[in-house]
């Protein structure tokens, strides 16, 4: 496929630009018979939506999703589901300057050399706005995985710029604009306020998990479950690192410590993050991602123009000072989409497999 | 594709098991007309080969590659290239015990639940031995990319267990069994000796780079260049983390620091690792991976048997006490395969694109 | 991919149902920089449009295409192009009877067993209305192939039911509602009138060609150019046969007659239809397809209900008495899409190939 | 995929050349746990093997298949199955003349323009010898489909050159070298003898069927079951036409005649060949293919040399005077591979679907 599709059996094809008439996606391969309406999708879109706090971009987008196909009388029919989100707040402005220069840290330079043309309006195709259709598709996958396996997908922020965030409990996540798993976010707010004042931006680290994962998902070589998770996560705007389980900490671990022992009472630990040999063990999936600081900042920086001459650029407009803040629902959606793909793929090849061995992860 | 193929336009399909008659791969999509013989492939296989120092498994495999198809009178014909490596040192032994239990940290448990059958001989399909065909295919990609663009792929170890390894220069890498970029590896040797004595294992961190990367490779959404690199790397046995450029360090960076400024003298820095918005900037690709400690250790560990009853397992046989030691050529190969795929894909869509803007990465 | 996508490098993902809010497609992989507007697409949609003569369905659809993405300031950007066509004339009616029975010759029975749910409104996903997005995508491919290679795609009807149609010249095709290449279509009109009076339907045979085809398109085994053409054509509603070149007539030919001799003045004949060994020879592509009689007829027929009990069904509503009549532009579009895919694929693998041998097809 | 792979979930990647060291394929996606040995595959290879009668090429190839991977203790493991067939009878000869000219009707000219290099030894990659791995893979699919659904695949010749062959019964097929379904093949033998004496060749028409087909296989648009069958069949060497059910005869049929009525006693007819709307109806699949006359004939013919100058070519060596004679087992294999792909795909998406409607095809 030509680059804008995620998955094969549950294939999500993404289209649109930040300031075009609409963005959206087509989901091909959704199992038939599932109850589905916009109300199942909208809550996750609302969690990702801009303009919900002073720490994110003030662009006002309702992000209302419309189901154009694939659903009849409230149920999926097994045919392609087209989800459409109209862009409504595309401020008109002069893009001449943006088109003449390249913003450091931005996709501008690569797009220009690749395509020889670029849509400067709000970043065009490179805008993080294009994660909205991913979130919408992820909501469909989440629903099916929940109904079929009882799976739950959750995410939270574990570090904001230089500030590590303590994990106090999932219950705190919905109550603050950072998706932080702690009660007091005043330090985070102060940090963001000072950044915004300085015209600068920062990165973030997120954690995403899935529970009640079926055991046996993933292919032995190349298309492993962890490989596909890494692909999906690193395919998200601004992500520069992906970890499964203990991730980079495993480098300094000993084998005698790292190996998670299965026991009759469940696995004794989960250093592997729920995946061994590329295949799910049935334990919770544990994924971490690093998100770089937003490239669009008010601070002037050196760059070049279209002809290679030196110039200085300064980004204006509405931007998230930390793109990681709104990324939690996106990372959850990506994890759900990968699991969905492998759940369907597993049925294709292994639907007849039966073993007597208990699923010890369910006991843990 | 059904999981064992990497790439679409330069598609590498991997087959074989550790102790079956042979392992190998089929490369579909190699451009025609390139001089190719086993001598182009063998050096990288030799770098990965077991038995070359006391710090790796003592299995004696010549890993001689045979080209079965796709080459006529020394040149690639554009048709599928089958590369075959016969297994020669498959020691016969009793696998009954392995089949009755699950080794912690191993793929056993997932394979069993997924397939309902597993090949216990040396890990079967889950063995790191299956990376040899990947290395062979990577050598073909490396050759084409070198001839076409002058690209070079290099890798080294940057941490062995708890020991960080200083980067003193690429010239040291070929002279020691660790692919360490430093002159003195005595501390690394002592560390490995003590580990082996303790019947334990450790992890490693590797760095891989590519130079003279064409600008403009990668697709905007989902199949970004970094996403496909992450997929390939995380698909390598025992990898638990992938970073592009500054990776997880970007979390604490400010936007004003992170953004790499293009200047008429080249890019001023390379925090992004050569990829912006999923598309290569022409700068060097910089990738880091975390490899977990080997799961096969002599230390007894708790586990369960096929019926879920508690048991104790102790791995015997020949194993690498740090699978990261031999992984450098594999990681290089994977990076080359991903770049090759995107180089071909780029020609498909964008062969007609021409821009006047200089390629500033070439000036850096 | 999950079934509703045609092509890989020029990938067209089709969505929608006959009476849903909209139908459309996403084209992923279109080369950047091409001028493109709705005006380039609309003419082919208009040729396929219902309601243009008394011999086709009287459903009144404007079939106005809207470009939702992938075009900036009138040029393709290399990112996904979403084409949307709103459905406007979806007559409301009671579908209870249709849902309780299976119409002979229709997709009903298979859809029901496959999906367990079906959209009865105008045939839902199985409606020939879903060929409109294919035509729209084909218009984009046609434009690129015309600008790049000077290619032209043409089609005509060669048989209507029992009536063979003489080929008098392409110039007649646009002037009659049958896409017939002859001046006098009064016999065809009389035939259709009598069919309609009888409440019956008939089949048709079409011919499609492409000129100025580049030599060298197609893959040796499996994904041959002719194989992909056959796939595309047989994937069109109601098609039951596909021929390349002399097709079924080759069975009774001798090798000494069939082989098309290349000569310095061009190929001496074109029995092969422009494809040898799965690869284009540069001669005109010649394809024929058989289209079965429309299944929706007024004549009552035996069938069963949902519970397997005998019943009689009689189709009402607006239907084409010969679906082949409007199929010519669709077949042209499919041929263009397949050629486009292979043209892009060829550049990926073989962009560097140069031979001195003249392209004799250009002399013919 | 890069052209040499058939299928996605049951993906067969074909490699090799007529006179290289070996030919073969890798099957990725075979369900685990099925008993499989070379003895399951060899019978179909033997049916296709050269040298079995005076009417086919006298090349002496044992075509012994070796299973290199994917099977452990006699059962498939769910990992890639590599099937290898060593070439043994590659006569050495001078290919200089072949390389300087283009044989009419052959792939030479297209290969040369596409790849800029060609392997002249026995046709290299374009040889019909490459259908042997397809037959081997098809045998694996047939076995699974037989065990799972009781499916049977059968084929026969229905026309040899100008001679139509009456269908007297399947029992005659194994008893003659033509796969003819009749008792007396003396006319066919005389026809072939006279052709051989004349140094000429002829075409053939074949019929392939599948019984006990599951209802509901195939995707609505583009990847329909019939589309994928057409793709597979037209991808077979020398095929120029494909029909499903009544094929081209449907053009002159009326809708009132063509539609197959489901009744409580089974379908009343099978004009559709078991596929409606791209989805299997559960009736027998009925496919016909047209195979052109062999291009390699002793008769001298006009052609050009590498520089475009006129020349005369005359093919020598061992060739089948009618390639259709050995094609029956290949066509069966291709049909089995397509059904296998769709059977696995169906489970992925629709494993949970249950309807009460009886499968009337099973009553027919």
TrEMBL record, chains A, B, C, D:
Keyword Amino-acid biosynthesis set for record: yes
GO cellular component: cytosol
Enzyme class: lyase
Pathway connected to this protein: Metabolic intermediate biosynthesis; chorismate biosynthesis; chorismate from D-erythrose 4-phosphate and phosphoenolpyruvate: step 7/7
Cofactor binding note: Reduced FMN (FMNH(2)).
EC id: 4.2.3.5
Single Gene Ontology MF annotation: chorismate synthase activity
GO annotation terms (biological process): amino acid biosynthetic process; aromatic amino acid family biosynthetic process; chorismate biosynthetic process
Record field: catalytic activity: 5-O-(1-carboxyvinyl)-3-phosphoshikimate = chorismate + phosphate
Listed SUPFAM superfamilies: Chorismate synthase, AroC
Keywords per UniProt: Amino-acid biosynthesis, Aromatic amino acid biosynthesis, FAD, Flavoprotein, FMN, Lyase, NADP
Residues binding NADP(+): 48, 54
CDD domains tied to this protein: Chorismate_synthase (cd07304)
Gene3D superfamilies: Chorismate synthase AroC
Binding site for FMN: 125-127, 237-238, 277, 292-296, 318
Cofactor section: FMNH2
Described purpose of this protein according to its UniProt entry: This reaction introduces a second double bond into the aromatic ring system.
PANTHER family in the cross-refs: CHORISMATE SYNTHASE
Entry's family note: Belongs to the chorismate synthase family.
Assembly mode: Homotetramer.
Protein name, as recorded: Chorismate synthase
Protein source organism: Brachymonas denitrificans DSM 15123
Gene: aroC
């Amino acid at each position: 496929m030509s680059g804008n599709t995620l998955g094969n059996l549950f294939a999500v094809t993404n289209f649109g630009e930040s300031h075009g008439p609409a963005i959206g996606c087509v989901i091909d391969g959704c199992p038939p018979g599932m109850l589905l309406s916009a109300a199942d999708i909208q809550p996750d879109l609302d969690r990702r939506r801009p303009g919900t706090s002073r720490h994110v971009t003030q662009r006002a987008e309702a992000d209302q999703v419309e189901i154009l196909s694939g659903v009849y009388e409230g149920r999926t029919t097994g045919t392609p589901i087209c989800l459409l989100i109209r862009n409504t707040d595309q401020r008109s402005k002069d893009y001449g300057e943006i088109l003449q220069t390249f913003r450091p840290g931005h996709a501008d330079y690569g797009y220009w050399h690749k395509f020889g043309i670029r849509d400067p309006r709000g970043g065009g195709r490179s805008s993080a706005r294009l994660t909205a259709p991913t979130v919408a598709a992820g909501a469909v996958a989440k629903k099916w995985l929940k109904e079929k396996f009882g799976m739950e997908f959750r995410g939270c922020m574990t570090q904001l710029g230089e500030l590590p965030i303590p994990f106090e409990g999932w219950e705190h996540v919905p109550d603050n604009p950072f998706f932080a798993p702690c009660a007091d976010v005043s330090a985070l707010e102060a940090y963001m306020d000072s950044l915004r004042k300085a015209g600068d931006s920062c990165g973030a680290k997120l954690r995403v998990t899935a529970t009640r994962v079926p055991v046996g998902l993933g292919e032995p070589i190349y298309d492993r479950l962890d490989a596909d998770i890494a692909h999906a996560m690193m395919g998200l705007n601004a992500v520069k690192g992906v970890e499964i389980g203990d991730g980079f900490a495993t480098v300094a671990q000993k084998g005698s410590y790292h190996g998670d022992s299965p026991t009759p009472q469940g696995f004794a630990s989960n250093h592997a993050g729920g995946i061994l040999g590329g295949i799910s063990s049935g334990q919770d999936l544990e994924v971490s991602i690093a998100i770089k600081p937003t490239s669009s900042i008010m601070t002037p920086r050196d760059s070049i123009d279209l002809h290679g001459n030196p110039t200085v650029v300064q980004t204006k407009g509405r931007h998230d000072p930390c793109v990681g803040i709104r990324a939690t629902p996106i990372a959850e959606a990506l994890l759900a989409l990968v699991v969905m793909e492998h759940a369907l793929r597993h049925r294709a090849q292994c639907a007849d497999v039966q073993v007597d061995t208990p699923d010890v992860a369910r006991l843990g």
